[in-house]
Design goal:
Oligomer: single chain
Helix content: over 70%
Largest sheet: none
């Protein structure tokens, strides 16, 4: 499990940096919630593919579509966590800056990451644990 956590962390760092960059790029044009959703969906698809291959060592194409469809549920949970945190931020501080939003999505992203690892390991890719 330690190796899985290390690989998962590496994938997470790449996806988090990508997500923050996408958010910062999209936010001026489409607003905070749509930018968060777009960045999260795009990077979560990348995250599922990378974790499938690198973290859980699943390389066969069998069940790939199902894994990605189930990954959409994981994305929805992460979107609830990060989108909810943005909603709370704007409720508390309607004049929040982009930097405030980036900090909020980063911090709430840590919780979403823990939930994502748990869901991937114990639900979507549980078959990899029995190899």
């Amino acid at each position: 499990m330690v190796r899985q956590l290390l690989r998962f962390t590496g994938v997470g760092v790449v996806c988090t940096v990508s997500s923050l960059a996408l958010y910062a790029f999209l936010r001026p044009w489409i607003g905070p919630q749509p930018a968060n959703a777009a960045a999260l969906i795009i990077t979560s698809l990348m995250n599922t593919a990378l974790n499938r291959r690198l973290t859980f060592k699943i390389t066969e194409r069998h069940r790939m579509k199902r894994d990605h469809l189930n990954g959409l549920i994981v994305i929805a949970v992460a979107l609830l966590i990060t989108g909810g945190s943005l909603g709370i931020l704007h409720w508390i501080n309607p004049d929040a800056t982009v930097a405030d939003e980036l900090w909020t999505t980063t911090l709430s992203g840590f919780l979403a990451t823990a939930v994502r690892f748990t869901m991937l390991r114990h639900w979507i890719f549980r078959r990899a644990r029995h190899r």
